[in-house]
Amino acid sequence: MAEARDPVADLKRIAFLLEAMQEPSYRVRVFRSAAATLAGMGSDEIAERAAGGRLRELPGVGEVTERTILESLRGEPPVYLRRLESTEGTPLAEGAAKLRAALKGDLHSHTEASDGHASVREMAEAAIELGHEYLVISDHSPRLTIANGLSTERLMLQLDEIARLNEELAPFRVLSGIEVDINEDGSLDQSPEVLSRLDLVVGSSHSLLRMESRKMTRRMVTALADPHLDVLGHCTGRMKKKRGDRPESTFDADIVFAAAARFDKAIEINCLPDRLDPPKRLLRLAVESGCRVSIDSDAHYTGQLAWVRVGCERAFLSGVDRQRHVSR
User: What pTM was estimated for this model as a whole?
Assistant: First the structure.
């Protein structure tokens, strides 16, 4: 067993790096407060509380700081600390801007063909204005009737439209794609023959999101093993709405992200404000697992294409490295 680290020193180091990165002061106070609480205690009492699951009874110790303390006591450099040290104290705005500059396009967007509100041409022209070199059109697959998912015939017509548009807009490229539903058994809601004709396939679960964890894990891993899938879209399915939140799906994230890394599939950082999926704790885990990530707007309107900046901020805060992790 590894020798325990000093949890007070780790908490203080995190607070220092957060401050150096110009993070909100309340985040800095969270870690400084926890460090101050532990500094007034003996190491035996801290260890005893940790063993008994009673750390969060202490003032200033919450879920994130408890996890940091436990990792430190196990002799592990806390994940939160490793993530911050990987950014080398770079301010958020600067780090996010570097990631944004590395992006050459967007892998997930919708048009009026499904549940979007602009034509392929209008989305492409908006992407050009943002400085993109390409845009993937990824309208929904047939099963998602509520979003007017495209039948095979409608999708083929869209491919013809994209081909004509590319002749006009070169060197900008409109890439053919789909946001294909992941069925309950992990299969994809379109034939392999059709999927093989597309430039990129995003796979997302839109139904039965409250499946039991083991079944959801199997569903996601089966999809990731499919050779036609390129990106796992909004993996938890969570939604944040004024009329009530939709909670995250439950699955074994270690297994799912290990499968993504093994099959070289990207985990999507979905930039829609209602989604912001995955949450940062899972995004950090995906990065730790060696997964590539795809920073996608999931735009349904032309202006939403600009929301990739939000994903770049979340990516930077989660330790995403543009050379090793970002799908471009």
Answer: 0.78
